[in-house]
Design goal:
mainly alpha, 0% strand, extended
Length: 117
């Protein structure tokens, strides 16, 4: 793909060749691995994850270049929004419970450390 696409399309050809190469690599690993040890993936959940991340990426790319302050603020807001969307729509109830327990534990440990100072 590199030989075919880069001379004609430059950096975009390189991007497509890389994407295609990783797609071939994924299939070359996935197919034999599934034959050796079958795992049922919930492809809808995987699709929701990629949709959320793709929308966040498209939103970031759609605004173009910004100075550092607005860029960091906007990108951070998108990352938080995407993380919240993943938390609400991709993670299972038990995943969310585990995350909340870890956050509460960290908060409790920080409070105990502050009390000891």
């Amino acid at each position: 793909l590199n030989i075919l696409l880069i001379p004609r399309f430059g950096v975009w050809g390189a991007a497509v060749a890389t994407f295609g190469g990783y797609g071939v690599r994924f299939l070359a690993v996935f197919i034999p691995a599934q034959r050796a040890f079958h795992v049922r993936y919930d492809w809808r959940t995987v699709g929701r994850l990629y949709l959320i991340l793709g929308v966040a990426l498209a939103a970031r790319l759609s605004v173009g270049l910004m100075t550092i302050g607005p860029s960091v603020a906007y990108s951070s807001g998108l990352a938080l929004a995407a993380g919240f969307a993943v938390y609400r729509t991709v993670l299972t109830a038990s995943d969310r419970t585990w995350i909340r327990s870890k956050l509460m534990r960290s908060r409790t440990e920080l409070a105990a450390a502050d009390a000891g100072d």
